[in-house]
Amino acid sequence: MPDIKGEKEAEGAKIYDALIAKQARLAVIGLGYVGLPIALEFAKKISVIGFDINEKRIRLIQQGIDPSKEVDGTAFAGKDVLFTSDLEVLKQARFFIIAVPTPVDKYNTPDLKPLLSASDTVGKVLKQGDYVVYESTTYPGCTEEDCLPVLEKISGLTMKENFKLGYSPERINPGDKKNTLRTVVKVVSGNDSEALGEIAKVYELVVDAGVHRAPSIKVAEASKIVENTQRDLNIALMNELSLIFDRMGINTYDVIEAAATKWNFLKFYPGLVGGHCIGVDPYYLTHKAAALGYESKVISSSRYINDDMAKYVARKIITHVLKISNEPRVLVKGVTFKENVSDIRNSKIIDTVKELLAFNIRVDVEDPYAIEEEVFNEYGLHLTRQEDEASNYAAVIVTVPHREYTGFNEAYFEERTGKDALIADLRGIYKNKITNRKYWSL
């Protein structure tokens, strides 16, 4: 643990200077797929505290193991960072970054409990001159209208007079080793010009691409929501086109390839929209809009289309397998929400599996990245190992283009299915490669 100099001296210094001189520490609250990479990047330059209430997660991270499988074990070496769940240790920090999940509940209503709990935690250790920056994705106004009152109530301090507030939306893309914290421009904001300047300088320590200074905290919050909502809308258009083209007997991927020959066509693809961002964030925006008296139309329609795609896939599978077998068995390849990651949160293929099970169809689920314990705890499903896959499946659903899946040839599917089986290739990996089995893609 580095020597933290006198408290009065630290309070008198600008926060950036205090951090650089290691007179103060930066703390990251929430060590998931966003928080841990941030903590390790800052720990190359300044003294960091990584805080999480999940003690099992802390124990793994202390051993150099990332439970999210996003950070390699070598990334922990030589870093000035202390991982803890101890509030007493957290008190040593002066710059707090909150990076906890912002999910929705079963009614698609924003669940702010993790965010407000983290605000409560920071409020207990907040001191004169400290900075608090939120990275968790949420609706415009949440930082100042929902989180700030908790900070002030618990700490007994007042923003502006006693501490500074900021928001900097995370832009980490799980599984992406090219677009990282260092290589993507970081949006930053603060409650006043001084806060904005200091927060920008702190983030410039770890973001080579530079920072964009948003004019207000609400603008920064809105920018993140818009990023993911725009993508959700574009995917919804492709999904709706897929529904139409399927009725016409046209392959959607063939259509996209042809349309993409025009210079201004944007290549989006149909698919299941799950995970913790694109399938969640638009609900935060529509929730806030409704609270202000506006019922979203385009955004809500896109959400409906994308959320219904998993059941549409299930209907296609059910219709096929019940025609060819009285006791059909289906293999699902891939349960994570996207390729080459272990994250199973809000995985929409689960909705497909539930529909199949409701028709007494036996379902085996295999995934080389998903953690079996997490899949069972979250969804009540046991994973099947690839070597234990059967040879009589009535359908195989390939959900994501994991590296391990892209090399499958037709013989792989022939070994696992009967001659009348359906290969449902949701991402078009095997287009024009399956000839001896019925082939279908979105």
**What is the mean predicted local confidence, pLDDT?**
93
What is the strand content?
A: 5-15%
Largest sheet: 8 strands, mixed
Whole-angstrom Rg: 24 Å
The count of β-strands is 13
Q: Point out poorly predicted stretches.
A: 1-12
- How many helices? The count is 16
Q: Under CATH, the topology of the largest domain is which?
A: Rossmann fold
What is the CATH class of the largest domain?
Answer: Alpha Beta
Give the class from helix and strand content and strand pairing.
alpha/beta
Q: Give me the CATH architecture of the largest domain, please.
A: 3-Layer(aba) Sandwich
CATH superfamily of the largest domain: NAD(P)-binding Rossmann-like Domain
Q: How many discrete structural domains?
A: 2
| Global morphology | elongated
Q: Oligomeric status of the shown chains?
A: single chain
